[in-house]
Amino acid sequence: MPASTALGASPAKGGNAMNWPEHFSQGNHLAHTPLAELTTFRIGGPAHVLTLERVEDLDAALAVHPKWVLGKGANILVSDDGCQRPVLRLGRQFSATQWVEEGLLRVGAAHDLALLIGRCCREGWGGLEGLSGVPATVGGALCMNAGTASRWFFDCVERVQVLLPNEGVPVWIERGKTDPVYRSSGFPAGTFFIGCELRLSRGEPEELLATARAMKAAKAASQPLSAASAGCIFKNPSPEMPAGRLVEELGLKGMRLGGAQISEVHGNFIINTGNARASEVAALVRRIRARAQEERGISLAMEIQLWDLDAELFEPQAEDLSW
Q1: Per-residue pLDDT for 321 more than 90?
Q2: Is residue 183 part of a domain?
Q3: Catalytic site includes residue 232
Q4: Which of 183, 287, 289, 291 is catalytic?
Q5: Has 183 been annotated as catalytic?
Q6: 3-class SS string, the chain
Q7: pLDDT in tens, 298-318
Q8: 72 vs 245: CA distance, rounded Å
Q9: Where in the sequence is the domain holding 182, given as residue range(s)?
Q10: Choosing from 120, 143, 232, 287, which is the catalytic residue?
């Protein structure tokens, strides 16, 4: 799932990445890095990536606009030319956990969701096992309200710590004052997620682990988990017509352009067969959306985030029906 969010307006040409080092104390890591190495799609050109290791530098990092925020790298498609705006990653100090009280666990945004689920199951705390197999950090799970057919991340959230757009101080917000929906936290664009508190319930470790294993096995049987991809490309139009089934009924599974291919395993996945480019993914997306609109009257909404890519490149045109 998404492990990222965009902060700030569109950058001026050249961005401000080269000014980052002067904002921070020593101990953080800045590198000019191909984003293909940091995303599950394995697509994308270079960007200045700052891994923030010191909590005391968070204010300075958040003051830099605009920027992208990167978690585990799922649900993202990056431009072949890379990103002009800098990219922020949260380091280990932002992955801490703390029991606030019995059954209430505070977790930092950088914590890996899979590791968190495994730990909770082994220690007999239930609630998250239904999210097994979702690739995300806690921050990414919050940002897009990561979920499966049986559970959303916000089902366990008691409150969330965020920095809201145009605000200078992080705040804790109670779950009852949020409005999460399918694949969205409900927070305004540009919200920075710092952590959350999760309400968990006691369970038998073996039962919880068995549920987690079953969830992962079901995903492995129905999704191309061994291939490089961003995860599901489109939001499901409805519970009755998931996007993967729609693509299959349109006869588009297996279609390939260059190194990008619509998965033969699951129609809502486009996989990188080894050397795919963002432009090739965009062409396949346009083809799917054009056919869905023409033959079923369904407008498919994007689930993945587009980094430094013009959304118009993914809008279907008349010529996309002539393949």
Answers
A1: no
A2: yes
A3: yes
A4: 183
A5: yes
A6: CECEEEECCCCCCCCCHHHHHHHCCECEEEEEEEHHHCCCCCCCCEEEEEEECCHHHHHHHHCCCCEEEECCCECEEECCCCCCCCEEEECHHHHCEEEEECCEEEEECCCEHHHHHHHHHHCCEECCHHHCCCCCEHHHHHHCCCECCCCEHHHCEEEEEEECCCCCCCEEEEHHHCCCECCECCCCCCCEEEEEEEECEECCHHHHHHHHHHHHHHHHHHCCCCCEECCCCECCCECCECHHHHHHHCCCCCCEECCEEECCCCCCCEEECCCCCHHHHHHHHHHHHHHHHHHHCCCCCECCEEECCCHHHHCCCHHHHCC
A7: 999 999 999 999 999 999 887
A8: 27
A9: 96-208
A10: 232
Domains held by the chain: number: 3
Per-residue pLDDT tens digits for 142-165: 999 999 988 999 999 999 999 998
Q: What local confidence, expressed as pLDDT, does residue 3 receive?
A: 43
% of the chain at pLDDT higher than 70: 91
- 322 belongs to a structural domain: no
Q: Who's near 256: CB < 8 A, 6+ residues apart?
A: 262, 273
Is the residue at 63 inside a domain? Answer: yes
Q: What is the pLDDT of residue 63?
A: 78
Provide the pairing of β-strand 260-262 with 256-257: antiparallel
159 is catalytic: no
Please report, for the domain that includes residue 259, its CATH number: 3.90.78.10
- For 1-18, the pLDDT digits (tens) are 444 444 433 333 334 444
Residue range 245-273: mean pLDDT, rounded: 98
In a domain, 216, yes or no: no
Residues 8 and 30 in one domain: yes
Q: Are residues 140 and 170 in the same domain?
A: yes
pLDDT digits (tens, 9 = 90+) for 7-62: 433 333 334 444 565 656 666 777 789 999 999 999 999 999 988 888 888 888 87
